[in-house]
Write a structure and sequence with these properties.
mainly alpha, 136 residues, elongated, DNA-binding, DNA-bd_dom_put_sf, 5 helices
Length: 136
Amino acid sequence: MRIGELGQRVGVTTRTLRHYEALGLIRATRDGNGHRTYDESDVRAVQEIRSLVDLGFALAETKPFVDCLRSGHDLAGVCADSIAVYRRKLAEVDDYLERMQSVRRELQDQLDVALLTRAAGPPQCELTSHPAAPAG
């Protein structure tokens, strides 16, 4: 199949496919006229790349998964290099969640102090009496 058909089948632009090819994620062969041609393995590779990118993987992180498919595996995540990337990504997500929980606790603490201070009595301010400063 040609690049336009591949793009339509997987829902990406031809520019995206050329970018993937430049990164070595997919491989086109050239027909007699010099046009790029792709096969079903490229469809599967691009679907895997898109799925991983949707999960937050960088394009470079998808290479071990594509390589795993290219080596004949039905699932892209079963190879040792893919598993290592999964583990790294999970560690990143765990770290991010921990940081966000810390931010949440700090925000909750600040809100609690503000509510207690406000409940203690005057002076009070009303949000509606002071217009917000324009964003700049």
